Amino acid sequence: MSRPHRPVDGAAATARAELPEEEAAAFDRLVHAVLAKPGAALGAALRSSLPGTAGIRWLRQEGLPPTTRAGALTAAQWLSLHRCWTNTQHAPTAGAPAGGRGGRPSSAHGHAPGAMPIPRWY
Question: By C-alpha distance, which of 3, 1, 93 is closest to 48?
């Protein structure tokens, strides 16, 4: 069962008011993802919301420690985080197939191509 979203307030609401209407829904998704665990450190929340090391890089860029709480962010930092989040949404992530190739190896026996299974002695 999903819980209803809380309305955005404080510095996040100020930042949301500065965005064009077409970006408001994406901003709300970001805010709710970051605030999903209100007492959690921002470093952990960003690790689950941004791919790779983008969250840590953003924290370093803003001069914030990973233990910062989301409630301590200013409106300018929310806008900066939104720009970072928007720019990384379409970025490739680790493990994604490159060039359209991916999936299982061509070997049907579950080993890498050319590899042989370990002999079993009974």
Answer: 93
* Two structure tokens written together for 4: 């209803």
Structure tokens given for 79: 């806008």
For residue 79, give the nearest of 11, 5, 10 by alpha carbon: 11
Distance between CA atoms of residues 66 and 49, nearest Å: 14
Q: How far is CA 117 from the centre of its chain?
A: 38
Residues making up the chain, counted from first to last = 122
- pLDDT tens per residue, range 4-62: 455 677 888 899 999 999 998 889 988 888 888 777 888 888 888 888 888 889 999 99
The amino acid at residue 2 is: S
Residue indicated by tokens 């900066």: 80
